[in-house]
Amino acid sequence: MLVDVETGAVVDVLRDREAQTLEDWLKAHPGTEVICRDRAGAYADGARQGAPDAIQVADRWHLYHNLCEHVGKAVARHRDCLKEPEPEPAEPPADAGHREGELVQLAGDAAAQRAEDSVLARRTKQRYELVQALRAQGLGIKPIMRQTGLRSPAIGQS
Cα(first)–Cα(last) distance of the chain, in Å? Predict the structure, then answer.
């Protein structure tokens, strides 16, 4: 079946799928510029002989069909590269919510302990304890600042 791809109208129906039949039809109807066809070798030969200046292109359906074939072959060639899916995780026990809360608490305690053990945390804690000891002796903020070398943003700005 010959179709005008711009209008979608059927132009003619050929009697067979032979190259000579298409060649004869094209020679009888000169002026064809683009031939959109399937992969049949006979149509390629007939188009080449009957309209040598025409451009031959694949139709949309055959482009998708070819793509699917090639992707299928590529996937088959590389099937061994694909990992098997991981098994589904088991259902959590009924008391999982309680355990989860305990785990969160333990993780928080461990993080707090690590932070407390850090150098910065130790230094900050020592400074805080020094400032509190000096305040307990009755010293004010300014004398504490002079003695410790610490600076209070609120006092430093006033």
Answer: 94
